[in-house]
Write a structure and sequence with these properties.
The protein is an alpha/beta fold. Helix content is about 50%, strand content about 15%.
Length: about 325
Amino acid sequence: MATSWPPGIPLYRDMAEVFAKHVERQSGGRMIIRILPGGTVAPALEVTDTVRKGITELGHSWPGYDIGRDPTTAILGGYAGGMESVPMMHWLYAGGGKELWAELRMEKFGVVAFPCGIRPPEAFAHSHKPIRTLEDFKGLKMRTVGAWAQILPKLGGSVVSLPGAEVFPALERKVIDATEWATPGENVISGFHEIAKYVIVPGVHQPSAPFELTINKEKWDILPADLKAIIEESAKLTTFESWYRIGKLDMGAMEIFRQNGNEIIQLSPETQTRAHEMGRKWAADIALTNPSFNKVMESQNAFEKKWKTVGDIRYFQIK
C-alpha cells in the first residue's frame, strides 16, 4: 500500500497502520498489507496514479491532492465552506456520500475507493507572521493544498504545495511563511510550534478532512467476496477510530503551545466569515460547469441543511 505520509505521524500510524492491522486480524492472516511511506515508489502526492497503474495494489492518501484532475476530489476531502467532521461522517455513511465517492473515483480515475480516516477541524496555520485579518494574507507565502490553494491567491497570498515530509524543513528555512497541515494535536507531533512563533486558529480552510483508501480495480475484481467485505469494513472502522484518536491528541495541545512561548491568534470573525463565503463561492462556480462536482456539492449542501434542523436539540449553550 503506497501512502502520502512519512512514518510516525498520525496519518500513517492511526490510519494506514490501523487499517492494515484490522484487515490482517479480520482475515485471519489471509491478507497482509505492507505499508510504504510517501515517496517510496512514487511521488507522495500521486498515490492515485500509483494504484491505477498497478504499481501497488492499494493506496492511502487525501483525495484533494487530485484537485488538478477533478476538483470534486477537494470537496470529498473537505474545504472552506464545507461541513465539520461530525456531519461529514454522517453524510458519508448515512447520506449517500460513500457511494458518490466510489462512483466518482471509478468514473474519473478508474480505481475502487472508500473513505478511510477523518480528522476533526484543523489548526489554520503555524506561521512566522501574525495572521488576524484579511489584510494579513497579502504577500503571505503559505504551504497549502486542495481548495484553499485556489482561494488563497484571491486574498493576495501565494501558494507552495508540498508533501508532508517536506513541510517542516520548508518552514524551518523560511522558504514559506506559514503552513497549514493538521489538527493542533497532530501538529505538536510534527513540531511546527518549535520553529514558528504563531499558531493561528480556527481551521476555517479545513472544517473536516476525510482520507481514503484506493484499490487497483483489476486486483479488486479477483478478490473473494469475504475479503472485499473485510477491506470495506476495515476502512470504515479506521475512519471512526482515527476521528477519536486524533481528537484526543488535540486535548492539551494549546497548553503545549503556550508553554513553548507560542502566540495563539484567533482569526477575526470577519476573516472567518469571508473564508467561508469564498469557499462556498469557489464551489458554486465550479459546479456550473462540472456535473460530477455539482452532484456531490448538492448532496452535501442538502445534507448540511437538514443537519442544521436538529442543531437546537443537539447542542447545548452552557457557559
